[in-house]
Amino acid sequence: MIADFEYFAPKTVKEALSLLSQYKEAKIIAGGQSLLVVLKQRLFSPEYLIDIKGISALDYINYEEGKGLRIGALTPHRTIEKSPVIQKYFPVLSEMENNIATIQTRNWGTIGGNICHGDPAGDPAPVFIALKAKLKLASLGGERVIDMQEFSKDYLEVALDPGEMLSEIQIPKPAPHTGTAHDKLMVMKGDMGIIGAAVSIVLDSKGKCEDARIVLSNAASVPLRAGKAEKKLIGKVLNDALLAEAGELASAEADPPADVHGSAEYRREMVKVFVRRAAAKALERARAA
Amino acid sequence: MAETKSEVFGNFSILGKAIPRVDARAKVTGEAKYAADYEFADMLWGQIKRSPYPHARILNIDTSKAERLPGVKAVTTGKDFGGFKWGWSGPTRDEEPLAVEKVRYLYEGVAAVAAVDEDTANEACDLIEVEYEPLPGVFDVLEAMKPGAPLVHENRPGNICVEYHWNFGDVDKAFAESYLVREDTFQTPRMAKGYLEPPAVVSYWPDSNHVVYIGAKGSPYFPYRLLSRCFNLPLSNVRIITPIIGSDFGGTKNDMTPADYSAVMLAKKTGRPVKIVTSQYDVLTTDLRRHPMWLTVKTGVTKDGILKATYLKAVADGGAYTRMSPLTMMLTGCLTTLPYKLPNYKYDCYNYFTNNPSSAAMRGHGLYHSRFAADVQLDMIAEELGLDPVEIRMKNAIENPEPGKVYTAVNDVHVATCGVQECIEKVAEAVNWKARKGKKKVEGSKAYGMGFAAATYNSGTKLSAHNACAAIIRVCEDGSVNYLTGATDVGQGSDTIMCAIAAEVLGIGLEDIDLKRVDTAFTPVDPGSYGSRVTVLAGQAARNAALDVKQQLLEVAAQQFGVKPEDVEIKNKQVFVKSNPTRNMSWERLVRTACYDTPGKVIIGRGYSTQGISLLGLADFSKGVGDIGTNYSFTAEANEVEVDTETGVVKCTDNSVIAHDCGFPLNTQAVESQVQGGAYHQGIAAAIYEEFKMDSGQTLNANLIDYKRPRAYEAPMTQVIHVLTNDPYGPFGAKEASEGSCCSAPPAIVNAIYNATGVWIKDLPTQPEKVFWALKAKKEEKKGRKKK
Amino acid sequence: MKGELKELSLTINGKPYELKVKAMTLLVELLRNELKLTGTKVGCLDSACGACTVNIDGKAVRSCSVLALQANGRKVTTIEGVSDSDKLHPIQQAMIDHGAIECGFCTPGMVMSAKALLAENPNPTRDEIREAIQGNLCADEGYVKYIEAIEIAAKEMRGGK
To answer: Are residues B97 and B219 in the same domain?
Structure first.
């Protein structure tokens, strides 16, 4: 079924990194929930496969009041969804996870694997961008930290250098009066969003929108920041009409694909709806925060 | 409420209640063996080489490289089959096991390989070199019907596969006399059959003159006949063994596939068992699918909404080969005259060949299309006349005939029992229809509406040939019993019903009966699982075989008691004199006495179905008259939908009820799950979710993620109401359960969407984008009107 | 080296195994083809149908979407390991008694999803049950009786409460 490959199962990050530096063309497998589909269809057949799923040191969720949230790259989706800390401080992450595929996938698939797959239809990347997340990338040469937003390069392409792997997702503590929400168009629960929107809104002490992030999934070849839509909101006291206008602007910024689930035209219409819906919920949360 | 409690009907020991399935334990423990689970020593793996063109001439096939690959044991091409062609009936034999001169749909099989493992077989397929001359193809009926269109079959001018023209009464006169005449065109999509188990086959030849075939076939006596003819063997030497089957729903698991023929040919060539398991991708790109159809319905009614006449024109995409299209077009037209009284009826249909994968039977076969069109149009008519949807249905619904009487439709369809009025009333009551008064409910962007529909389905389907079906019951000397059947349970629960009928008649327990699934070396012939025929026809055979056994044993008992056989009865495994039950013996003792006393008897009973071969005359396809069914089931259904008016996403809610007249529910649980499965899974799924998207013969969503099949979250907890009519032509009053429910769901959903939004969706499925644009167009139309 | 057999040590249905497998072997291929545990079904191999669902360390996972080697050191339970010899698990019994099973092809996967659910959540809501079996396609039954059977089994396992 799958073409043969040489297989390594490092137990530590260090071991994994030295294998990565030794086998430059090696592919990393974490939970493999996306990768194995590709391998089974033989769209891609790696010579070397480095299986990092067993590196238990990268399966963690830590929250510290000052530093914010740290999620190990190999934390399963289901762990994030069910984490009391995340449900308390970042409910948007738990909600987003709850709508990713099915429990079977969430039990085995990891958050790092999802992000490194680089699928613009995925949900975590837009939500992390909305949450101003940073990624810690490790290599034998050391570590670097980049913005999640810089990570997606193109369709299924991410900013990992040869010999490098994702080790941690870092989410800063949100500013006071921040609300974040995610919503996507599903025909059935667990569907990849036909279109998805993650929106984060920060209000100032007077209730004016101080900052906003609007990030779309399945609307371009990478998770898409709708900059014009964000600008529309910043500095204003938000209302339904403004949120709808943001949706219109985001729709104009989107360059969505057309496929069996919907035309590009329909998807642009849906950007309007889901930006407005996610923004309304984010605003409600920001006001309550 | 955590669970639905099954009701109890009739005064039986076993029947009329919830009967646990005889195969449930094996299935729930993983012991049940499906075709892909079979394995033999020295077994080889087979694989099919498929065409990359939907329409092309085959110029040359070079298998030499594949043959040289280590591990490859045999390669076969269509030429090995010596010109053998097969099809649904003599005149429609237009398909080869593997294409020889021309391929007519994408991924049609052109060669096959047997090798020591799956990977080697795949690799060998890649090494087979086929030279093609690509031909222009036709991919929809509009292209296919054009003069000068490329011909899918050179000997079939105009690409016409099937056409019928029927006329009953005088529709023109009736339209002229009607108060209102409406004409609407509807569309139904290409749908996957939906079985999860990909077809698999293992074949071997015990010697050069005998073949064994183990495969997932709902009609194992089809391969029995086809392999006999293909390999020039007497039927006596063809052994088809039926494993447990993971659903069918008509089509591929009735019929043969390139893999079936190839496995047998490769086994013959190698002298070793050969197994071919079809991948789900191959299933979704090449297996039979439901016909896409375009239906134009013209209906005339009186001012009060009484139906005067219907003219139905159906155009279907039959795909590359004829397969079952003649039956599909018959079934699409022949029961438009039920479940409402229709005095005048005209039907024209055209089924075209295209270079798409072949279309064929699927649950709700035929009627699914025409009932969708007619029952949605009925709501449109009701609205124009200001009538309530339930009211217009009650007015037109056929009344249940008095016992002994028969309702005869204009096209000579005979109905002895009809519970459609009771179904409509009970559903209306269960959903509190009157109190709703057609009102929709709106909460934010969500609009809720309810829709109603009714339907019928032919049960105990009778075709012109091979209707014979029988059962053999063998009583073992310890009192245990073997039930030998040619009927095939593909999941519907017929094995349980057969055992339950036999046990009921014999007065013993369900656990005393061991059913032998089809092995054509030992079991009697039966047409198989299609046309909702098994319970009604094979069930009668079961009853007759059990009565035969019982008579033989009663004679032994009568001798023992010194009374006449008719004075003895068997119940709860006790044999007793009716007038004095204290004179009794156990079932085991009776059997032992019969078998061991001089002269020892061998107790074997046999029974066959008489309904399958007689009653009121078989249907005539060319004229559209007569009975395709032994009897007819009826349903009525109300579904509530939630429509997201901003996105177009439709969902069926738990507020959904279906009433089903299956005559008499032999196994209440099985009827409920069949009806829930039919109504929900394949009716509502067809209405809202499922459609193959095509581009030039290529199936674009050939996986179970992109081909949307609803899951547990989308499943309404449909309530099932049993309606009993005790049909005289079914065993213990039974008629079919589930195909009717598959037909009432799509119109109920579309009617509900209209109720919620004021938009008619005339082409299925009601996927979000389609609903979205329809809603938008309506909004703009409203705006436009306001401006004026 | 490519083509080299790799060592795999795991527990399946309570029994320890020391095996040698090809690296590209999927867990479902190991179970069905090598170990002849054919109760686990293959419907799609695309992570779509859930017929191949097993439990790994008590959690529902699709065995077509895991390399056999990834189960190294873990506890795998398949449908063959659910009943206690002759005594069926309450989930199995409820599915039989409630008439939830039709063709049975999805049943092993349904049982494994339900088992993982009830181990984690003894008193699930109807929506939680739906969520637990959302990854298990059923072709013919319409899910209603499966959902109800899992509710019945949960109650039974809570001692009738």
So the answer is: yes
Q: Has domain C5-79 been given CATH number 3.10.20.30?
A: yes
Same domain, B281 and B368: no
Query: Residues of C with CB below 8 A from B36's CB?
Result: 38, 42
Containing structural domain, residue B570: 470-613
Reply yes or no on whether the pLDDT at B2 is more than 90: no
> C103 vs B490: CB contact, 8 Å cut-off?
yes
User: What pLDDT is attached to residue B7?
Assistant: 79
**Closest alpha carbon within chain A to B279:** A1
Q: How far apart are CA B311 and CA B765, in angstroms?
A: 24
Report how far residue B394's alpha carbon sits from residue B500's, in angstroms, rounded to the nearest whole number: 36
**So what's the pLDDT on residue A1?**
83
Q: Determine the topology of domain A178-288 in CATH.
A: Enolase-like; domain 1 (3.30.390)
Q: How many domains does chain B have?
A: 3
Q: What is the pTM of this model?
A: 0.97
Q: Do A269 and B772 touch (CB under 8 A)?
A: yes
Query: Rounded to 5, what percent of chain C is helix, strand, coil?
Result: 40, 20, 45
Q: Which CATH number fits domain A6-51: 3.30.43.10, 3.40.50.11030, 3.40.630.30, 1.10.3630.10?
A: 3.30.43.10
CB contact, 8 Å: C134 with chain A?
yes
Instruction: Kindly report the nearest CA distance between residue B766 and chain C, in angstroms.
Output: 19
- To the nearest 10 degrees (0 to 180), the angle between helices C90-97 and C144-157 is 140
Tell me if the domain spanning A56-171 has CATH number 3.30.465.10.
yes
Q: Indicate yes or no: CB of C3 within 8 angstroms of CB of A40.
A: no
Nearest residue on chain A to C109, judged by CA atoms?
A: A104
* Interfacial A residues in 253-272 facing B (CB < 8 Å): 259-263, 266, 269-270
Q: What is the mean pLDDT of residues C33-55?
A: 97
Residue-level length of chain C: 161
DSSP assignment of C70-129, as one string? GGTT-EEE-GGGSSBTTBPPHHHHHHHHTT--SS-SSHHHHHHHHHHHHHH-SS--HHHH
Cα–Cα distance measured from residue B188 to residue B433, given in angstroms and rounded to the nearest whole number: 28
Say if A43 is an interface residue toward chain B (CB within 8 Å): no
Instruction: Report CB contact under 8 Å: C70, A51.
Output: yes
pLDDT at B461 over 60: yes
CA distance A273 to chain B (A): 7
Task: Give me the residue from A188, A262, A269 closest to B714, CB to CB.
Answer: A188
Per domain, the residue ranges of chain C are 5-79, 90-157
Q: Which of residues 66-125 of C touch B (CB under 8 A)?
A: 78-80, 82-83, 88, 92, 95-108, 111
Residue B186 lies in a domain: no
Q: Which fold, C90-157?
A: DNA polymerase; domain 1 (1.10.150)
Query: What is the tens place of the pLDDT at every residue in A163-213?
Result: 999 999 999 999 999 999 999 999 999 999 999 999 999 999 999 999 999
CB contact under 8 A, B647 and A189: no
Q: Calculate how close chain A gets to C97, using CA atoms only, in Å.
A: 26
Residue B683: per-residue pLDDT = 92
Give me the pLDDT at residue B612, please.
57
Those chains having 3 or more beta-carbon pairs within 8 angstroms of chain C are: A, B
CATH number of the domain bearing residue B674: 3.30.365.10
Q: Are residues B623 and B744 in the same domain?
A: yes
Query: How far apart (Å, rounded) are the C-alpha atoms in residues A260 and B3?
Result: 38
Same domain, yes or no: B449 and B501: no
Contact (CB<8Å) A190/C61: no
DSSP line for B758-771: S----BS---HHHH
* Beta strand B481-485 pairing with B513-516: parallel
Would the CB atoms of A269 and B693 count as touching at under 8 Å?
no
